[in-house]
């Protein structure tokens, strides 16, 4: 259930005493006109109750109550955390910042694997042409994780 503010028409959770947008105090008559509000999960399309932090169907983190300035800041920070450490083969920080922990863990494992492969096989006297294979693998992981952070921020946070 949710409350619609008579002053600004913003929807607030039914447990709130004041409007989340304009701060108007909810009265008893406002509470009598409570409405059922569900949002749709971006990932799976299931109904998500207002005020919940995630989808019960797929476990996706739901980002809400973000104005455009905050959304742009979160998007920029996540993209920079994917780009700058990624240049140095340290992947997954953008996903970690966005709360995508499974993907962040997988990218951090890829970082460790690439680091170990570099020390073991690319070192002088190692396998011939291993440096080219290592550079190619590093570049592929870097591009994929950067693309994925851009996709997540543009779709979930900026709503594009």
Condensed summary:
This protein is mainly alpha-helical. The chain has helices spanning 28-32, 68-87, 93-98, 101-122, 130-157, and strands spanning 2-4, 11-13, 38-40, 47-49.
Describe this structure as you would to a colleague.
- The protein is mainly α.
- The chain folds into two domains: 2-49, no CATH class; 68-157, no CATH class.
- 51% of the residues lie in helices and 8% in strands.
- It is built from five helices and four strands.
- Helix 2 runs antiparallel to helix 5 (130-157) and helix 4 (101-122) packs antiparallel against helix 5 (130-157).
- The mean pLDDT is 80.
- Given the helix and strand composition, which structural class is it? mainly alpha
Topology order in helix (H) and strand (E) letters = EEHEEHHHH
Radius of gyration: 22 Å
Please state the overall shape, judged from the principal axes of the Cα atoms: elongated
Low-confidence runs of at least 5 consecutive residues: none
Distance between the termini: 28 Å
Number of domains: 2
Treating each run of at least 4 consecutive H or I residues as one helix, how many helices? 5
**Helicity level:** 40-55%
Strand percentage lies at 5-15%
Strand order in the largest sheet: 1-2
Give the number of DSSP strands. Answer: 4
Would you tell me the overall average pLDDT?
80
The major pleated sheet works out as:
2 strands, antiparallel
């Amino acid at each position: 259930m949710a409350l619609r503010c008579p002053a600004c028409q913003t929807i607030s959770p039914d447990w709130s005493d004041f409007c989340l947008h304009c701060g108007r105090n909810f009265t008893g008559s406002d509470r009598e006109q409570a409405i059922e509000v569900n949002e749709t999960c971006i990932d799976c399309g299931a109904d998500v109750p207002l005020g919940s932090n995630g989808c019960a169907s797929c476990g996706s983190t739901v980002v809400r109550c973000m104005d455009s300035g905050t959304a742009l800041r979160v998007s920029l920070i996540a993209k920079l955390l994917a780009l700058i450490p990624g240049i140095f083969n340290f992947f997954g920080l953008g996903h970690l910042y966005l709360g995508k922990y499974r993907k962040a863990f997988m990218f951090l494992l890829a970082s460790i694997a690439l680091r170990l492969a570099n020390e073991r096989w690319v070192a002088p006297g190692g396998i011939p042409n291993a440096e080219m294979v290592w550079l190619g693998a590093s570049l592929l992981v870097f591009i994929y994780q950067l693309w994925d952070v851009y996709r997540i921020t543009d779709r979930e946070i900026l709503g594009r």
